[in-house]
Design brief:
Layout lengths: L4 H21 L8 E5 L3 H11 L4 E5 L2 H9 L6 E5 L7 H11 L4 E6 L4 H9 L5 E4 L4 H47 L7 H7 L2 H12 L9 H4 L9 H14 L1 H4 L8 H5 L8 E2 L2 E2 L3 H10 L5 H6 L6 H17 L16
Parallel strand pairs: 1-2, 1-3, 3-4, 4-5
Antiparallel strand pairs: 6-7
Helix pairs in contact: 1-8, 3-4, 6-8, 10-15, 13-15
């Protein structure tokens, strides 16, 4: 049986998620894990190198200063193990500086019993994750490093999952705009309501991503998403937004917000995913950012060049006010603007 477009999109999503999961759960030390070792005593350094070569990629240095130069030159390490007592930078001082350069690394220190108090501040401050008492036992140190590597990979997996969820959330917000633009341009043949009511949210995201053929939504800075309009929804702002919309956006989006333009349709589609209680469902910050910066490869990029810094928020206020009045059966866009209730 021929695979439908929706089935194909769903299969791609499952394959992508399975690949990401498999990459994040392999805990083998040989998965290119690097152990950076610092000790000013060459015999100790040789012992550590011989013990862990073949298990980790070992990078050994005789001073913290030398190790920092290597890090500044591009060396990355999941694990950093340093002696505490060294001329020049002490182990704690080195690890504090290394933490600023490799913040996600797991940092361990070799220390004598008498030095424990000196390490508490560094451990409490997060620059040092663990200390190993000297003289160390090879098997104990092996287990300690294996546990530290697992901690690193668990944290990395959490970071990747957080990033993946955030990226999907960002694209989900932007995909609504993408779908409405495609509808307005006639690139999606389905009826408007069917796009949202038949296709699950994640498939809308994948479908819009495939059709637009670019990840422009990923460019919206996270901090911009939750921004509310700094411009009060006053009659003056609504009037400015109406004027700027009709002066600048007509070539891209129709003669007015009641016309057939792409932006206008965001506020006209009678489906909950795009239009709720007559108001914008896309976060104001995301909408304003896209309006201000445009979308590469679309007419909105040229429109962006004609807008002044404050224009996107006035346009947001105008369209919000227009949508609210339309939902209440109020005057259309040709009438005097009436500011929505203050935020």
């Amino acid at each position: 049986m021929t695979e439908t477009a929706l089935e194909r999109l769903e299969r791609r999503r499952r394959e992508r998620d399975a690949t990401e999961t498999s990459h994040s759960t392999d805990a083998s030390p040989k998965q290119t894990a690097t152990l950076l070792v610092v000790d000013d005593e060459a015999p100790n350094l040789d012992v550590l190198r011989r013990q862990f070569e073949g298990i980790y990629r070992v990078e050994a240095f005789e001073s913290g200063e030398e190790a920092l130069r290597a890090i500044d030159g591009g060396l990355k390490a999941e694990l950093i193990l340093s002696d505490q007592r060294m001329p020049g930078l002490s182990g704690v001082e080195f690890l504090q500086l290394a933490a600023g350069r490799l913040p996600h690394s797991r940092r361990l220190i070799l220390s004598g019993y008498t030095e424990r108090k000196d390490l508490l501040a560094a451990i409490n401050g997060g620059q040092v994750h663990q200390y190993v008492t000297k003289p160390w036992q090879p098997d104990d140190l092996m287990q300690t490093l294996a546990g530290a590597l697992q901690d690193y990979r668990d944290e990395e997996a959490r970071r990747r999952e957080t990033l993946r969820v955030r990226q999907r959330r960002l694209f989900s917000m932007g995909a609504l705009v993408a779908v409405s633009v495609l509808l307005a341009l006639g690139l999606v043949a389905q009826k408007r309501q069917a796009v949202v009511e038949v296709v699950p949210d994640d498939l809308i995201v994948l479908g819009a991503k495939d059709l637009v053929a670019r990840d422009w939504v990923d460019n919206i800075p996270v901090e911009e998403i939750s921004v509310s309009s700094p411009v009060p929804t006053s009659p003056e702002s609504v009037a400015r937004g109406k004027s700027r919309y009709e002066a600048v956006c007509t070539g891209c989006h129709g003669q007015s917000a009641d016309g057939d333009g792409a932006i206008a349709r965001i506020f006209k589609l009678p489906v909950p995913a795009l239009h709720k209680d007559g108001m914008i469902s896309l976060p104001e910050g995301a909408f304003a950012w896209v309006t201000a910066h445009g979308i590469e490869g679309t007419a909105m990029k040229s429109m962006q060049k004609m807008l002044q810094p404050g224009d996107p928020w006035d346009i947001v206020n105008y369209l919000s006010d227009l949508a609210a009045r339309r939902a209440k059966g109020g005057p259309d866009s040709g009438s005097e603007p009436q500011a929505s209730p203050g935020r």
